[in-house]
Structures are given as structure tokens and as C-alpha cells.
């Protein structure tokens, strides 16, 4: 429910001035219950981007794609009786963002992604909505 930081890497390939593909992977670890519960999350996403106004200094874009979302819950100490759990979910996402040239060979980008995930089982579907918003801020090299 609270916002949190992820770190990741990605690559963006421009096919045309107005069309790009992106692959990204992020990593995150959260601790709960005074360190007795660790949650690892690794989202892997593939996206297609349509740059709306490619000749402007600030280039807005929209897009979408698919993703694989790995989550591992590791319990220890007082919570070790609950055991560990690993889930792998697939889902999609839509994107709206913009990129701006920072200097020769570098661009900054920021986008908003709505992630919609399809849980594997009815029990997971009943436990709450796994969909979430992701705000991405990054630096593109070599453009």
C-alpha cells in the first residue's frame, strides 16, 4: 500500500524516430515483522513505445507491454512456522511518459505505468487486487 523504491536496468531500441521497444528488469527487497519476513520482487517487462512528437525537445510517448512478476516471501524467526512462498505472475501494462535530451548522447525519461496482473489461482484473486502503479525515472545512454 505504501510507495517503495525499486532499482533496475533496461534497454530501449529505436526502430524509427517514433517507434521503440524496451526490455527492463527491476529488483526490490522489503523487510517486515522486525526483519522476520523478507519479500523479494523482480518484475521483468517488455514494452513497445510510440513517440508522439519525435521532433520536439520534450518527446511524449505512450505504450504498453507484458511482464513476468516474481515474488518470494521468506519467513524466519517468529514467523518461520508460516513457511516460504514463491509466486510467478504474468500481466500487462500501459505506459504514458516523456523523454528529454539532457546533453549529447543522454536523455532523461519519466513515465507512469499501470501494471495489471493475472493471479494464478482463485485464492490469490480473492486476497486482493495485485494491480499497481509504477513511476519510472531513468537515464538513456547513447542516443
Please give a structural write-up:
Helices cover 3% and strands 69% of the residues. It has one helix at residues 122-126; strands at residues 7-16, 19-32, 37-51, 58-75, 85-103, 106-118, 132-141. It is mostly beta strands. The radius of gyration is 18 Å and the shape is elongated.
Feature tags:
143 residues, mainly beta, elongated
Write the layout of secondary structure elements.
Blueprint (H helix, E strand, L loop, with lengths): L6 E10 L2 E14 L4 E15 L6 E18 L9 E19 L2 E13 L3 H5 L5 E10 L2
Antiparallel strand pairs: 1-2, 2-3, 3-4, 4-5, 5-6, 6-7
| Structural class estimated from helices and strands | mainly beta
Task: Count all strands and give the number.
Answer: 7
* Molecular shape: elongated
How do the helices and strands follow one another from N- to C-terminus? Answer: EEEEEEHE
- Give the radius of gyration: 18 Å
Q: Helix share of residues?
A: under 10%
Write out the strand line-up for the largest beta sheet, numbering strands in chain order. 1-2-3-4-5-6-7
- The fraction of residues assigned to DSSP E strands is over 45%
Uncertain spans = 121-126
Distance between the ends: 36 Å
The largest β sheet comes out as: 7 strands, antiparallel
Q: What is the residue-averaged pLDDT?
A: 85
User: Number of helix segments?
Assistant: 1
Would you summarize the structure shown here?
The protein has 1 helix and 7 strands; from the N terminus they run ββββββαβ. Residues 121-126 have low confidence and may be disordered. It has one helix spanning 122-126; strands spanning 7-16, 19-32, 37-51, 58-75, 85-103, 106-118, 132-141.
